[in-house]
Amino acid sequence: MSSSAERVRKEQTGKPNVTSLNYEKKAITIFGLPLIWFLAITALTLVSMYTGNLPGGMIGSLLIMMVLGELFGWIGDKTPILKTYLGGGAILAIFGAAYMAYAGLIPDSTVTMINDFMKDGGFLNFYIAALITGSILGMNKQILIKVGLKYFIPIFGAVFGAMLVAGLFGALVGFSLTDAVLVITMPIMGGGMGAGAVPMSQIYSELMGNDPSYYISMLVPALALGNVFAIILASMLNILGKKVPSLSGNGQLLKGFEYKEEKSSFDIQKMGVGLLAAVLFFTIGTLAAGFIPLHAYALMIIIVAIAKIADIIPKNILDGANQWYKFVAKNWTFALLFGIGIAYTDLGQVLEALTLQYIVTVLGVVVGAVIGAGLLGKLVGFYPIESAITAGLCMANMGGTGDVAVLSSSRRMELMPFAQISSRLGGALILLLAGLLIPLLM
Asked: Which residue of 81, 109, 198, 398 has the fewest C-beta atoms within 10 A of its own C-beta?
């Protein structure tokens, strides 16, 4: 119907054309683009990849990750059971990518390119640096002061709860306490591969004999499967928070402290300043890690938090960091999750671990972490769901990559600084605890 005819109809009836309105409502978009345009872009991308003409390095990697990540993310967020109970787009982006690599649906050259971009190219670090810097600098400093050392109480609750419930579940299916705690619980709660399973295998090798690779082969399946359960439970906690609002702060960790973010006008130059701040703080954290035996992320969080509390950063940098963080989270989250599926998720190892005994015990670890962190978090004045997600699930996932997936699944990306405390400082705690427990349990 022409616009003039539509105007005549509206003048005659006093109502707009319902058919036209329904059409507008039903228009499908992916990544803000009309469906036909997005599909055309996807087709061009796939033709370039399968004919071997995809540009190398960052351009080709980011194109594949953004296009397929957004496609899987859109499908996951629209699929009823998947979006409600299994993490939606976050889990489909990760495991859709992992399946494509596992089944050979992505050329080896593209898999290698994305691996290099994610790891050697530092895209994961680039993304997390933006989230840590922007979310802390955009946070009310009173929250940082009030949370303080209280946060480690739910972390201890998560570790204790994970060992207790895993031990109980493991005993029910025939696992010894040693297997349930050392082989399954410790790697799941240990902060991922690089900061958890790898150094943990060295500790196990030194204290129990055998080559570190022997222990890696046992630890990695637990880590991968625990990450899956963490993502799923994050989605379920989000649902619980909507059904029982008193348990959730909707992204706020601290009870009784409502904070409304100040609105600042969008400024492209400020975003550039925010980008500079993110990479600078990450560099400072890396520099400090050369002298202090802590992970660069952990040191970065401490440095950014001190700078925020001390009020030494100009407002245009605070605004810029916050705007850059929002840009990165809005536009690259599904791309990053797709890259995680390619570079950090070995679907073969996950499938090999799928025995009933193993699944039940791993589930016990993650459930115990949620219960312990939620209960002790409530005792120190945190919202139970936010505490369970950050101090519990972000201890039980696959480190930095798992933090992104869990927070995306729970729709609480603003909790990234607390998630990183769990993954990095909590992971260091687990390595220490593993060294203490081995002599007692062996």
From this structure: 81
